[in-house]
């Protein structure tokens, strides 16, 4: 599978050197290295210097978006199906300084507060056989797009202007559908569900959705004549309105919640879209905590279908966790626009290896082994145990120890001063 993933985009490199560097880069991301920067990946690949890995992210000639397209096609060929779900979410990386592309003090769910951080918006795909991430966008706040000199210093193309996170999500969904990704549904959290423009964009694609909204979200009822807070609607529901259903399998078995479905309400600004608007409410069976979803389908749907899509939204959280803990998605030390997209794309390639291997193993394994399903974490352990052998050559290890200590020397006469970050 590693060879298949690397092979799907090998033709995007015009020279053998960057193609080999990309293969070593993805393999290094799958390794058991604790830190996965260009230095560590170069040492792991047997290089004497990090130049090839840094050049791959900075100066080498290749199109990260084209590689992304190849990966997206491979993933949808493996996981694609008529009930596919496109899942949008964002994740933040805490940063120091002000020169890394997109960084500013902003809220990030990674820290749960406002921090100096960089935010990326990602698109996941979930099919019947598996799920993983298929696209990415770095979010540029207005403080960046209003400062063209700052953008130019970070390599941001001149045509890139300000776009909200929901607009970036809409761009990725449009690109995926235009590329033939089979999907009938979209799911996202409150950041996107609260956006009327984002909901309208999905309806324009005739894409059914189950989008989380805030408890204070104003729900239009009575044909849009009245707007009522979502939590107020929930408070007025009788006990008979709730049904207990599973939102899918979790690590400890089915995830049961109580659900209330108010069909044919929540009409948006376009009442003649031909679809069915509704409000879905989820209640935790233990804590009583409520969650709310704006739903729309181009054709009549069932409660079971909406509950399934609501449950699938959590696959993007699982993908983020795997991407960060297993393939170093958040360990890049790059500052420029192209370098961020290149590193992130190669991380998605490494994640695809794990996701497809785990899905294939689940599909092929017998059901009576008494073992849990093969996880992406265990797949990476097996890859390291069976395929990726660490370099134990003493001279190579000592060479890199010397390289690191010279390169980190504060002396201005050091022959290996730290170059600009890619």
From TrEMBL:
Domain Transposase IS701-like DDE span(s) in chain numbering: 8-219
TM region positions: none
Top-level taxonomic group: Bacteria
Xref: InterPro entries: IS701-like (IPR039365), IS701-like_DDE_dom (IPR038721), RNaseH-like_sf (IPR012337)
One Pfam family matching this protein: DDE_5
Protein name per its UniProtKB record: Transposase
Provenance organism: Plantactinospora endophytica
């Amino acid at each position: 599978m590693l060879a298949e993933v690397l092979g799907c985009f090998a033709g995007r490199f015009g020279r053998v050197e960057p193609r080999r560097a990309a293969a070593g880069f993805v393999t290094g991301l799958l390794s058991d290295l604790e830190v996965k920067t260009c230095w560590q990946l170069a040492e792991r690949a047997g290089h004497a210097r990090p130049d090839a890995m840094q050049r791959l992210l900075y100066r080498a000639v290749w199109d990260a978006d084209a590689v992304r397209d190849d990966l997206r096609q491979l993933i949808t060929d493996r996981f694609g199906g008529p009930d596919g779900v496109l899942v949008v979410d964002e994740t933040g990386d805490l940063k120091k300084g002000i020169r890394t592309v997109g960084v500013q003090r902003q809220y990030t769910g990674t820290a749960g507060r406002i921090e100096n951080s960089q935010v990326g918006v990602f698109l996941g795909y979930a099919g019947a056989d598996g799920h993983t991430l298929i696209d990415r966008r770095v979010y540029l706040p207005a403080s960046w797009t209003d400062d063209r000199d700052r953008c130019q210093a970070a390599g941001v193309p001149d045509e890139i202007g300000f776009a909200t996170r929901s607009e970036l999500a809409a761009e990725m969904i449009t690109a995926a559908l235009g590329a033939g990704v089979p999907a009938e549904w979209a799911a996202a959290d409150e950041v996107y569900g609260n956006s009327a423009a984002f909901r309208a964009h999905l309806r324009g694609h005739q894409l059914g959705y189950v989008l989380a909204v805030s408890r204070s979200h104003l729900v239009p009822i009575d044909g849009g004549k009245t707007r009522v807070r979502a939590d107020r609607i929930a408070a007025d529901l009788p006990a008979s309105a709730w049904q207990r259903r599973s939102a899918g399998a979790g690590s400890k078995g089915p995830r049961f919640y109580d659900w209330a479905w108010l069909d044919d309400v929540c009409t948006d600004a376009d009442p003649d879209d031909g679809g069915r608007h509704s409000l879905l409410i989820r209640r935790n069976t233990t804590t009583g905590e409520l969650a709310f979803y704006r739903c729309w389908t181009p054709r009549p749907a069932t409660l079971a279908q909406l509950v399934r899509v609501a449950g699938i939204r959590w696959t993007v959280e699982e993908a983020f966790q795997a991407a960060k803990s297993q393939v170093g998605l958040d360990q890049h030390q790059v500052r420029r626009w192209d370098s961020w997209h290149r590193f992130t794309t190669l991380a998605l390639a490494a994640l695809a290896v794990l996701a497809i291997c785990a899905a294939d193993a689940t599909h092929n394994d017998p059901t009576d082994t008494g073992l849990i399903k093969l996880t992406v974490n265990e797949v990476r352990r097996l890859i390291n145990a069976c395929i990726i052998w660490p370099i134990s050559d003493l001279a190579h290890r000592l060479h890199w120890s010397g390289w690191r200590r010279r390169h980190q020397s504060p002396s201005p006469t050091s022959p290996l001063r730290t170059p600009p970050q890619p």
